[in-house]
Amino acid sequence: MNPFELNPQSITEEILDFNTKLAAGINTLTEMGEFDEGVSEKDAVYSEDKLVLHHYQSRTDKQNKVPILIVYALVNRPYMADLQEDRSLIRGLLDAGMDVYLIDWGYPDDADRYLSLDDYINGYIDRCVDVIRQRSKQEKINLLGICQGGAFSLCYTSLHQDKVKNLITTVTPVDFQTKNDMLSHLARNIDTDACVDALGNVSGDLLNWSFMMLKPFRLMGQKYMDLVDIVDDKTKLKNFLTMENWIFDSPDQAGEAYREFIKQFYQENKLVKAEVKIGEDTVDLGRITVPILNIYARDDHLVPPDSSRALQGCITSDDYSEMEFPGGHIGIYVSSRAQKTLPPAIADWINKRT
User: Fold this and answer.
1) Number of other residues whose CB lies within 10 A of the CB of residue 11
2) Which of 119, 265, 267, 280 is buried most deeply by CB count within 10 Å?
3) Is 352 exposed, middle or buried (0-12, 13-18, 19+ CB in 10 A)?
4) On the CB side of 36, how many CA atoms lie within 13 Å of its CA?
């Protein structure tokens, strides 16, 4: 029999199977309802402009007395850290006895066009830290920075180390010009001044599409082809759509802060040179002496491991640890392996230093 010969019966069966899956998928879609922006119980304890500071309700009888403040990136929304019941860094930390806070940056609009990095770091983050210090009656708190939020946390710690007990950075860029950094090569060729002067705030959708173009086949083609295989599985389809909802929930970026970040960090690589200016202050990572846990993803295409690991050569802390996660930029928070390893490791590291 010719292996390339078409078999009408097989083709008919495949078409019927596909139609059955598609019908089941359409029925499942009608039952999905709204997607939650995080699944763990929380209370808004402070707000300012678009920002809301959330405090998560305890899930254990005993908690570490020193709170953790999670500082997320300005791109995308922070509920990625609390996506679903079984895919939540925050829930894992709560179950490990941590007292967790998180900054939700909200959705900047035209009123926020002139917000600077000084406003975000010496302003918003510092005031949130003070709120938490007052609520917890602790002189110092723990910071956990995610991606760009990790870079913000490094800057904040350099400038306000008297308020930071321990620092955890996750998939955080430090050297913004490593050899295999595709995002850096893209960012270094942007005429940032022309972009911001013309647009004001920078479209979150525009940035999101730029990120996906770094791996166009996997992020813009293959995953939708693979969707056919799971469209009739309610659990897998919900997981897929929950992630898609988060991916395309992209806030615009305040124009001036975007201009400063691209130029100082990506184009001039000033963080590793101790030359970043935040308002009137200069960020020198060499001043950081607090304990640091630096977690990076081995297969990260947005923040290569070399970019994160450069941190060790910039600080003077004698308590520095690294942890490699065998996954990608997002998998480090939402994969099943991450749920088993990351929150317990972070909690254990903090408990030993409290």
Assistant:
1) 10
2) 265
3) exposed
4) 12
- d(C-alpha 63, C-alpha 55), whole Å: 14
- Cβ-based neighbours of 97, under 8 Å, separated by 6 or more: 60, 62, 63, 64, 347, 351
Within a domain: residue 241?
yes
Whichever domain contains 96, its CATH number is 3.40.50.1820
The whole-model pTM stands at 0.87
Whether residue 21 is contained in a domain is answered as no
Helix (H) or strand (E) holding 203: none
Residues of the domain holding 104? 42-351
Residue 9 three-state SS: helix
Give the residue-averaged pLDDT of 151-179: 97
Burial 245-279 (b: 16+ CB within 10 A, else e): bbbebbbbbbbbbbbbbbbbbbbebbbbeeebebe
Q: Report yes or no: 112 and 252 within 8 Å, Cβ to Cβ.
A: no
Q: Give the residue numbers marked as catalytic.
A: 147
Q: What is the DSSP string of 125-143?
A: IHHHHHHHHHHHT-S-EEE
Question: Does residue 289 have a pLDDT over 70?
Answer: yes
Q: Please indicate, yes or no, if residue 32 is contained in any of the structural domains.
A: no
pLDDT more than 90, % of the chain: 66
Average pLDDT over residues 160-166: 98
For residue 217, the model assigns a pLDDT of: 45
Per-residue model confidence as pLDDT tens digits over 196-230: 999 999 988 888 767 666 555 455 556 656 666 66
Q: Please tell me the distance from the alpha carbon of residue 276 to that of residue 293, in angstroms, as a whole number.
A: 22
8 domain residue, yes or no: no
Cα torsion angle, 265, 117, 169, 298, sign: negative
User: pLDDT, tens digit, for every residue of 56-82?
Assistant: 999 999 999 999 999 999 988 999 999
Vertex 74 angle, CA 334 and 315, to 5°: 85
